[in-house]
Write a structure and sequence with these properties.
Blueprint: H1 9-36, E1 40-49, E2 55-66, E3 70-72, H2 74-84, H3 87-108, E4 114-118, H4 121-125, H5 129-139, E5 147-152, H6 153-158, H7 160-172, E6 176-182, H8 191-194, E7 199-202, H9 204-207, H10 215-229, E8 233-236, H11 242-250, E9 255-256, E10 265-266, H12 267-274
The chain binds ligand C2E and magnesium ion (MG) (3 copies).
Length: 278
């Protein structure tokens, strides 16, 4: 065991590391407990057709109603669930819940479009994910066209051959795929040729910068043009203002998601706001 010259720093650093890993273990156990105690809930955020303002689909976004900490953000616990491997059981719960909810809505006669489920990188790369999805779909009577998966470009290209394999099999069944947080992955665009994505979701950071006359507008314009020539759908994420909406309409963006219309909301609220039965 090596010692720091001062003899102090070492122990300090060491105890900090312990603190960190202790905290991780605490959160890990807390997530496990939370799953058992049914503290997780799916919220849903509409995807809105920019032309007629109709609902085109819903993105499922997980919420943790923690008994002591209140509502905990997925940005806080998804990374820990990933690191600890708990993402597999949490992911299973998410898949189950989203498919159950969607089947229920279809049976009730609601037409909200497809449900988009986020797959985190580890969850996506788990070799059992395909079997799990197929099993869930066979147990429910839900048609595959009502399901979409969102994955980030980084996750998709990290093992492109595996991704192609998985995507090919699932898209053959009618399941759709969207690229989440497009433009933030610093990756080459060649995967757009090789992988069967249907939709590009332009990351909020680009939408934040599309004021009139800005350079940001040109980037978004370019992404939309590219998506159109590739015959892909394009969604703008994180639309908050009327100005952004108007610009995106001018740029002929297909769909938007954002607080301008709705934040993610519970299932019963979706029914209340968008539940005109067709
Ligand atoms: P994401 O999939 O890119 O989801 C978009 C995030 O932006 C959501 O945050 C949403 O609430 C937020 N958002 C939507 N519109 C606006 C807006 O107009 N303004 C602002 N400021 N934010 C907006 P959320 O729900 O906190 O989720 C954060 C991330 O956590 C997600 O990013 C996704 O990567 C992950 N996540 C959430 N739910 C799940 C899940 O069920 N499974 C997995 N694997 N990851 C999830
Ligand atoms: Mg998403
Ligand atoms: Mg996103
Ligand atoms: Mg994100």
């Amino acid at each position: 065991i090596s010692k720091d010259i001062s003899g102090n720093k070492y122990t300090l650093y060491n105890s900090k590391m312990n603190e960190l890993s202790n905290e991780k273990i605490i959160i890990e156990n807390d997530i496990r407990r939370g799953i058992e105690e049914r503290e997780f809930e799916l919220y849903y955020q509409p995807k809105i057709n920019i032309k007629n303002e109709g609902i085109m689909g819903l993105e499922a976004l997980i919420r943790w109603n923690h008994p002591l900490r209140g509502s905990v953000s997925p940005d806080e616990f998804i990374p820990i669930a990933e690191e600890t491997g708990l993402i597999d059981s949490l992911g299973k719960w998410i898949l189950n819940e989203a498919i159950y909810q969607q089947e229920k809505w279809i049976n009730m006669g609601y037409k909200f479009g497809a449900i988009s489920i986020n797959l985190s990188p580890k969850q996506f790369k788990n070799k059992d994910i395909k079997t799990e999805i197929l099993l869930l779909l066979s147990k429910s009577k839900l048609e595959s066209k009502y399901i979409e998966f969102e994955i980030t470009e980084t996750a998709a290209i990290e093992s492109e051959e595996y991704t192609l394999d998985l995507m090919t099999e699932l898209t053959e069944l009618g399941i759709k795929f969207a690229i989440d947080d497009f433009g933030t992955g610093y990756s080459s665009l060649s995967y757009l040729i090789n992988l069967p994505f249907d939709t590009i979701k332009i990351d909020k950071s680009f939408i934040d910068n599309i004021s009139k006359g800005s350079r940001g507008i040109e980037i978004v314009k370019g992404i939309i043009a590219m998506a159109n020539s590739l015959k892909m759908n394009v969604i703008a994420e994180g639309v908050e203002t009327k100005e952004q909406l108007d610009i995106l309409r001018e740029l002929e963006c297909d769909m938007v998601q954002g607080y301008y219309y709705n934040p993610p909301i519970p299932a019963d609220k979706i029914e209340k706001i968008y539940g005109i039965k067709k």
